[in-house]
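Entry 12.
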Amino acid sequence: MKKLLPLLFFCILQISCGEKVSKDEFDSIKAENEKLKIELEDLKFGPAKLLSQIKKLINSKDYYKAKSEIETLINKHPTSDQTVEAKKLLIDVDANIKALDLANEIEKNKLEKAEKERLANSTKKLRSRKDDIKGITWYYDKTTTDYNDRNSFHLYMGQREGGKPWLRFRIQYKSDDWLFINSYIIKTDNNSYTISTTRDEVERDNGYGGIWEWYDVPIDNNLYNIVKDVMNSKSVKLRYNGKQYYDDRKVSENEKKALQNILDAYEALGGDTNF
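Predicted 3D structure (C-alpha cells):
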C-alpha cells in the first residue's frame, strides 16, 4: 500500500502537468498496482493470517465467527497446510456450535413456557363481574374497587364472549368537598404528564357526607405510555387539578402492581397494545 501511493501520485502529477504517460509506464504502474493488491489480499486473507485468527476466535469461544473464517480459508486456500489443520479444528467448532444451539433452544423454550405460565396465571389475580344484559364480563384487579369509595388510579377491562378484551383507564377522587376537576398532572421519575378533560368527561356524585369525581375513558396510545411509565417509576405523584384548588397524593405500589396485573391479563386474553 505504501508503494502504491507514490505510483498513483506520480500518474496524477504527470497528468495534471499535462505530460503524457507512456504506455510502458502505464503498464508498469498497472502491473505494480495488481501486485500490491495481491499482497494486500494475502495480508488480509492469507492462510497463515486466517488460521491465526481462527485460533483466537476459538479461544474466545466465538465459534460461529470461527466457522465462518474456516469456510473462508477453505474456499480461498483449499490445498494449503493451514486448511488441513483448520478442517480438523472444524470438527470441534461444529460440536460446540451444536451444543450452543441446543442450549439456546432450551433457554428459549424455558422462557416461552415461563411467559405462558405468567400470562395464564395473571387472570387469577383479578376479580370479574358479568353484565348479563350487555353480555360483557368486566375484570378488575383484586385490590381495585369498581365503586367510587376511595381514591384510585387504575385500569380495568371488558370482554364479550368469544371477543378480544378492551382496556379502560380510570382516575377516582373521593373527599368531603368538591374540586370540580378539570385536569390531572402525573409526575413520574423522569416525566410530567397533563391529562386535560372536557366538561362531560369528569363525572360527579355525592352522598353520605362525601363527594366523588371520576374520569373513565377508553385507553389510547398516550394513556398507555403514561401507564407504562407509572408502572416503571419508583415515585409517582398525582395531582387532581380543580377549578380553584388541587389535591396531591402518591400513586401507591399496590396501584402500580394492579396496573401490571391488568395488562398481563389483557395480553393473556389476546388484547392488542397497538392502540
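Annotation: Strands lie at 126-131, 136-141, 152-160, 166-175, 183-187, 192-196, 202-207, 210-218, 237-241, 246-250. Residues 1-5 have pLDDT under 50 and may be disordered.
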